[in-house]
Amino acid sequence: MVSELTHFVHGKNVPGRTGRFGDVYDPNTGQVRARVPLADRAETEAVIADAAQAQVEWGSWSPQRRARVLLKFLQLVEPEREAIARALSAEHGKTVADAHGDLQRGLEVVEFAAGIPHLIKGEFTDNAGSGIDVHSLRQPLGVVAGITPFNFPAMIPLWKAAPALACGNAFILKPSERDPSVPLRLAELFHEAGLPPGVLNVVNGGKETVDTLLTDPRVAAVGFVGSTPIAEYVYSTATAHGKRAQCFGGAKNHMIVMPDADLDQVADALIGAGYGSAGERCMAISVAVPVGEETADALVAKLTERIAGLTVGASDDPDADFGPLVSRDALERVDSYVGLGVEEGAELVVDGRGHKVKGCEDGFFTGASLFDRVTPDMRVYQEEIFGPVLSVVRADDYEQALRLPSEHEYGNGVSIFTRDGDTARDFSQRVNTGMVGVNVPIPVPVAYHTFGGWKRSGFGDLNQHGPDSIRFYTRTKTVTSRWPSGVKEGAEFTIPVVR
Ligand code: NAD
């Protein structure tokens, strides 16, 4: 049975009014499981109006009272973890175990944001001039919006919602239309946790919905995560309309493998980071760069052996290492990139195309593919494939390996595997990329540090979560005060200076 999803506005599930819907698939079966309403401009404007009204009271709550709502939310999620993970897995196609990780990484940012009474404290200078004190305070922006991708339907909405709400903003979430059920459930739980109606609204939709959020003057800031062309569009449109924007885009993450690395450890790390979640992670490793022919030959042999042992199956199969891709379009795109790599002259060591899973013949499955001898002039190297395709680019030496991620147009994550501290340190210092792992394949920073890529992986100047998120979702007001003797002495006609 195909269910009909809703929006979540003013604390209630609200059916769509436009009569326009998007299909939400079960990627395991290839069947439509739900229809998601697509909001038009008028519907989205009503959601913004509701949020603007609700924000006034929410912004006046003490930070500690706001934190209590986040803490209660964490309690309410606890008994629902398994149900949320299963719902997430059924719409996205990642395994249930991986879906648990998606939720957990989001909850960690809620835990961070619950520290808001401390995080939002301003600065104070006593006696900045004679009888003058200066203090700065952080105030909420008002209504802020988050536009999120399909690939982390719990984590990324929570990365955006939790700090935005903790800072006293009303938050409007426009989740991916491909897997909106979990974001809707999370909004319901926030409401049950005591969030006043309208403070967190979820509006489903596509371009028209997004464009309304980007141009409406009542929206003060936009946080986006998705593909680079849309990130760039959202950034330029939002900023042209006077909004703050932070927009995170695509990636092509490299792993440098030095000859002194433990190659079994490297191969295990690459298999997990390259093929986990069917490669649909912005921090997936899609390029391995072994240094030296001997390292490369040994690495390709170890990868080939491990790929043969992988299980690609239904996302609720506990034995599956990874599940299907999110959509038929994604499947066709990934398979066509494998074909392109062959045309471009890369050596296809393992061809994952055409993988069938028994009982799920119409699912969006493709197996793990491995290319060797990929070169930087190939499109399979330059472009984000966003599927289970790992490319090996052989480097002659360390300097050549360092140049590859540094000169790539994307600069999200990168990692190096080595036993040499000096090489690791030099690499961390010099590589032109936002997040670096040293013997860590997927260096997603913990919640209290910040997450953000460089170059065409990120547009804007502040990162997600950690201290940057508090800066992004507040504006600083600085108060200079003097009591009251200066006034008694009469007006001053020269500019005040510190004496
Ligand atoms: P996407 O760009 O297709 O969609 C992201 C969001 O933008 C969705 O909510 C979608 O509805 C909306 N959107 C799509 N087309 C639009 C348009 N023309 N105008 C306005 N809004 C539009 O991305 P996706 O396929 O959902 O997600 C995968 C991409 O996200 C990959 O490129 C991946 O690397 C990237 N990603 C990046 C990060 C990061 O932190 N850098 C994290 C996760 C995913």
UniProtKB/TrEMBL annotation:
GO biological process, one term: L-valine catabolic process
Protein name: methylmalonate-semialdehyde dehydrogenase (CoA acylating)
NCBIfam families: MMSDH (TIGR01722)
GO molecular function: methylmalonate-semialdehyde dehydrogenase (acylating, NAD) activity
Pfam families reported in the protein's UniProt record: Aldedh
Organism lineage string: Bacteria, Bacillati, Actinomycetota, Actinomycetes, Streptosporangiales
InterPro entries in the record: Ald_DH/histidinol_DH, Ald_DH_C, Ald_DH_CS_CYS, Ald_DH_N, Aldehyde_DH_dom, MeMal-semiAld_DH
Origin: domain of life: Bacteria
Keywords per UniProt: NAD, Oxidoreductase
EC supergroup of this enzyme: oxidoreductase
Organism from which the protein derives: Nocardiopsis metallicus
Ranges for domain Aldehyde dehydrogenase: 22-479
EC number per UniProt: 1.2.1.27
